[in-house]
UniProtKB/TrEMBL annotation:
One of its GO terms (biological process) is peptidoglycan biosynthetic process. Transmembrane segments: none annotated. It is an enzyme of class 2 (transferase). Pfam families: Transgly. Peptidoglycan polymerase that catalyzes glycan chain elongation from lipid-linked precursors. It is a single-pass membrane protein. It comes from Hymenobacter lapidarius. Keywords: Cell inner membrane, Cell membrane, Cell shape, Cell wall biogenesis/degradation, Glycosyltransferase, Membrane, Peptidoglycan synthesis, Transferase, Transmembrane, Transmembrane helix. Belongs to the glycosyltransferase 51 family. This is Biosynthetic peptidoglycan transglycosylase. The gene is mtgA. It catalyses: [GlcNAc-(1->4)-Mur2Ac(oyl-L-Ala-gamma-D-Glu-L-Lys-D-Ala-D-Ala)](n)-di-trans,octa-cis-undecaprenyl diphosphate + beta-D-GlcNAc-(1->4)-Mur2Ac(oyl-L-Ala-gamma-D-Glu-L-Lys-D-Ala-D-Ala)-di-trans,octa-cis-undecaprenyl diphosphate = [GlcNAc-(1->4)-Mur2Ac(oyl-L-Ala-gamma-D-Glu-L-Lys-D-Ala-D-Ala)](n+1)-di-trans,octa-cis-undecaprenyl diphosphate + di-trans,octa-cis-undecaprenyl diphosphate + H(+).
Length: 242
């Protein structure tokens, strides 16, 4: 009986592993039709204090997949400058950033939790996993982060991130966000606009890219400084050749 149970557990584990590998491998070339968070937002509006632009009636999802070649070079540069400046250096995990975030959270009052996730970790979470906080989900996030770093290149990881990141209620990716907030394609956004879009992450429901407040403007200025510090188009060319 124990031997049968062990064999069944091994078969289930192998099936789950092969399925996850096939899933990640497929998305190396195929855009995801939707994510779990998109489906959740489609079903009902988010609930929270200080949220802007919530669509109470129509829950239509704005999502248009674009390749890196179809967006302005300032877009991936701004996202790296805002979220993960060591993106091209690490292999999915920035342990220095995680340690600093843990220290700040430990010394803080608990009202503002600082994250240390890389862009790779955020892609693993946004593309393959459900929304929420639990040790099981964090373990799954780490597992998928390892898979995408092994099976994709940095270009594809960035491509996924700029398409599936939530940038407002029912708005996912820079193309949909650019159309909604600026009335133009992501291929035409300026560095200042790209910095504004990146600056509202990771709280796109609280900070507005359209009619931004003083906090969003301050984030925009910080992102623009980091964009210059990274080397501007030189950095983007490195990413595009990756």
């Amino acid at each position: 009986m124990l031997k049968k149970a062990s064999r069944l557990l091994l078969q289930v584990t192998a099936a789950l592993f092969l399925t996850s590998v096939a899933w990640v491998l497929a998305y190396r070339w195929v855009p995801p039709p939707a994510t779990w968070l998109m489906l959740e937002r489609r079903a009902h509006p988010p609930v929270g204090k200080g949220y802007y632009g919530i669509q109470e009636d129509s829950r239509h999802i704005r999502y248009q997949f674009r390749t890196l070649d179809e967006v302005a070079p300032a877009v991936p540069l701004a996202l790296v400058a805002a979220e993960d400046q060591r993106f091209l250096l690490h292999r999915g995990f920035d342990f220095d950033a995680m340690a600093k975030a843990a220290k700040r959270n430990w010394n803080g009052d608990g009202t503002h939790i600082v994250g240390g996730s890389t862009i790779s970790q955020q892609v693993a979470k946004n593309v393959f996993l459900w929304h929420g906080r639990s040790y099981v989900r964090k373990a799954a996030e780490a597992y998928f982060t390892v898979l995408i770093e092994f099976m994709w290149n940095k270009r594809r990881i960035m491509e996924m991130y700029l398409n599936v990141a939530e940038m407002g209620d029912c708005t996912f990716g820079v193309e949909a966000a650019s159309q909604r907030y600026f009335g133009k394609s992501a291929s035409s956004v300026t560095p200042a606009e790209a910095a504004l879009l990146a600056g509202v992450l990771p709280n796109p429901l609280r900070f507005r890219a359209s009619n931004p407040g003083p906090v969003a403007r301050a984030k925009q200025r910080r992102v623009l400084r980091n964009m210059r510090r990274l080397g501007g188009t030189t950095y983007v060319n490195t990413l595009l050749k990756n």
